[in-house]
């Protein structure tokens, strides 16, 4: 007895949490191959069956051979002494019931194994009928959140990664668990194992044929559509956990690292989509939506200053005019759009230095196709708020180049319709990017300046201020505001056709737009504009614009200046 006592020592416990049919048994076999590891197959199972009363073909045998007292399981079985350095405990998430000692979550190292329910469900009902509770994804989310609250955020791995690249996935997992990887983890003998639970003959027939993590077949089995609603319920839970996986388990995966956001605070925001407010990663439209099918949508950009939305009514006028020009039907009312905007801003606590991308799509289609006759659900409203300072350098100025891409003619697509199909502008922006310029000037079909890819444009020459006719360009709200300010400042305003050389030789140039406000231009196509500094007229109009944004706008309900 004394020799046996000497062999027993305190072990470090590794908890694996998963839903059924998630390769959890394969992973248990993998860890069982290590020379420093003992494994336990679902030590909480007997406690779960005794507590819930759920029936299984093997229930009586299991309860007679396994410990079913929750306290004893945690203290003596899971955390009891052992003969090896580590103990791997395979847990099924639904088996963690209330009443178990807190040490279960507070001690040891935890990780979560997930698998897409679209891969789990087709094979689930071989033993028991699949239900939301049997899948246990809600329990997995609860476990993840509880561990995070304890300051012990668990590693999350996806079964798809184990299948695609088992060595890399296991090495990463071992690194996170702070244990050395062993090559033995990649292979095991086929057949039943001494570590198998009593239930193995009912559940493990397939895994007993395996000798390692097998790659998925190129094409999956058909999905049983009788389980469609269960998939709809469970998939969001899987996706919420999948966001925490280090490796991308998508079959069409990107090798790009996660990018840094221009404003990190925008990582957590709430957006309005359709008729509900959703977190950033869940704010999506249907693949049947017209904006996806054909860019069939209209939009506006709005800015928020000191608890007020600047020029809100003017932007809504243009939104509804654009929707009418495109023959949208079942359009939300003006009041409904306003309420959605206000609600979204209030929910985000965005009352200043914020920008809204407001979109109204023709809506979801009953089947894919071009015809608006397929749009029978009504329009889709999107309110996307972001913390966003002006996007250009309004202090030192920007550089422009002239694009070869010409601005759309009203003969083709009237720019007075503020639509989401921005390919014409994007092609010009690509030219600007390739030239390392901030934006690109776009000419009309006759070679006169129309606007930039994103803004309207003005020039100053001998005290006169000129801007192109809004024949090819969008008649911007900020453009109209600045034109009014120019007149109020008792400056001479001229609206006419303007050639490119007139911009090259101007005393001053600036652009206007909601996202960038009023932005000085100091160089066009390599030509220095004026002195290469922000000019006096530009500064004067900038100041007048800033004052106007401070004094006017539609107040956001409930906002109170502090």
TrEMBL record:
GO terms for biological process: carboxylic acid biosynthetic process. SUPFAM superfamilies: D-aminoacid aminotransferase-like PLP-dependent enzymes, P-loop containing nucleoside triphosphate hydrolases. This is Branched-chain-amino-acid aminotransferase-like protein 1. GO terms for molecular function: catalytic activity. It comes from Quercus rubra (Northern red oak). Belongs to the class-IV pyridoxal-phosphate-dependent aminotransferase family.
């Amino acid at each position: 007895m004394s020799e046996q006592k000497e062999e027993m020592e305190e072990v470090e416990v590794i908890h694996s949490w998963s839903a059924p049919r998630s390769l959890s048994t394969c992973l248990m076999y993998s860890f069982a191959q290590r020379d420093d590891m003992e494994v336990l197959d679902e030590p909480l199972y007997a406690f779960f069956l005794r507590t819930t009363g759920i029936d299984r073909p093997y229930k009586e045998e299991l309860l007679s051979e396994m410990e079913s007292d929750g306290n004893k399981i945690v203290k003596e079985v899971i955390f009891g002494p052992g003969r090896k350095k580590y103990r791997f405990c395979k847990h099924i998430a639904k088996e963690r019931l209330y009443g178990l000692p807190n040490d279960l979550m507070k001690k040891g190292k935890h990780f979560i194994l997930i698998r897409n329910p679209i891969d789990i469900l087709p094979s689930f009902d071989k033993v028991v009928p699949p239900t939301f509770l049997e899948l246990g994804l809600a329990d997995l989310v609860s476990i993840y959140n509880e561990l995070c609250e304890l300051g012990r955020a668990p590693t999350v791995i996806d079964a798809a990664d184990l299948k695609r690249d088992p060595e890399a996935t296991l090495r990463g997992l071992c690194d996170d668990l702070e244990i050395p990887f062993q090559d033995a983890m990649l292979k095991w003998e086929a057949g039943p194992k001494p570590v198998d639970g009593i239930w193995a003959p009912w559940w493990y027939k397939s895994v007993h044929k395996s000798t390692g993590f097998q790659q998925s077949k190129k094409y999956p089995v058909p999905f049983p559509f009788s389980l469609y609603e269960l998939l709809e319920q469970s998939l969001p839970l899987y996706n919420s956990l999948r966001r925490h996986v280090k490796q991308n388990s998508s079959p069409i995966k990107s090798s790009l690292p996660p990018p840094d956001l221009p404003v990190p605070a925008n990582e957590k925001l709430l957006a309005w989509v359709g008729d509900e407010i959703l977190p950033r990663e869940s704010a999506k439209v249907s693949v049947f939506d017209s904006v996806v099918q054909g860019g069939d949508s209209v939009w506006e950009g709005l800015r928020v200053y000191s608890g007020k939305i600047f020029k809100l009514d003017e932007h809504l006028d243009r939104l509804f005019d654009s929707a009418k020009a495109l023959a949208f039907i079942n359009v939300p009312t003006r009041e409904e759009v306003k309420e959605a905007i206000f609600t979204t801003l209030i929910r985000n606590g965005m009352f200043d230095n914020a920008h809204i991308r407001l979109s109204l799509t023709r809506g979801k289609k009953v089947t894919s196709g071009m015809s608006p006759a397929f749009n029978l659900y009504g329009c889709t409203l999107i309110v996307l708020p972001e913390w966003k300072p002006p996007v250009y350098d309004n202090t030192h100025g920007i550089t422009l180049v002239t694009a070869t891409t010409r601005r759309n003619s009203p003969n083709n697509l009237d720019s007075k319709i503020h639509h989401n199909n921005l390919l014409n502008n994007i092609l010009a922006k690509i030219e600007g990017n390739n030239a390392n310029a901030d934006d690109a000037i776009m000419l009309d079909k006759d070679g006169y300046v129309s606007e930039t890819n994103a803004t309207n444009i003005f020039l100053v020459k001998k005290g006169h201020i000129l801007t192109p006719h809004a024949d090819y360009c969008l008649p911007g709200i900020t453009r109209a505001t600045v034109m009014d300010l120019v007149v109020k400042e008792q400056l001479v305003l001229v609206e006419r056709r303007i050639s490119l050389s007139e911009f090259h030789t101007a005393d001053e140039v600036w652009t206007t737009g909601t996202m960038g406000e009023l932005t000085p231009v100091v160089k066009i196509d390599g030509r220095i504009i004026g002195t290469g500094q922000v000019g006096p007229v530009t500064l004067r109009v900038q100041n007048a614009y800033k004052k106007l944004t401070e004094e006017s706008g539609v107040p956001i309900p409930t906002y109170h200046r502090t």
